[in-house]
Write a structure and sequence with these properties.
- This protein is mostly helical.
- It has four helices and no strands.
- The radius of gyration is 21 Å and the shape is rod-shaped.
């Protein structure tokens, strides 16, 4: 969990804090008083979901290539 959530949240905090003053939010968001960290947060959540999906798919493909799951399913049940 830390490996999946840590880097995007750290990225969000460092980029949002360090570069927040140099970016301007769209005019419609300026009237709602949204700072850059709030503007950048949905993209960070999207990165977490996207990379989790990508790496779990890669894991599933490697597992099918190696045949590990088939060998586990073919073992007899204990007891």
């Amino acid at each position: 969990m830390i490996g999946a959530l840590g880097p995007p949240i750290l990225f969000w905090f460092l980029i949002g804090s360090g570069l927040g003053e140099s970016f301007r939010t769209p005019r419609t968001l300026q009237t709602m008083d949204v700072n850059y960290l709030q503007y950048f947060f949905p993209g960070t959540i999207t990165l977490i979901v996207l990379f989790t999906a990508i790496f779990s798919t890669i894991s599933l493909i490697e597992d099918r290539h190696e045949g590990f799951l088939q060998s586990v399913w073919s073992l007899p049940c204990p007891g």
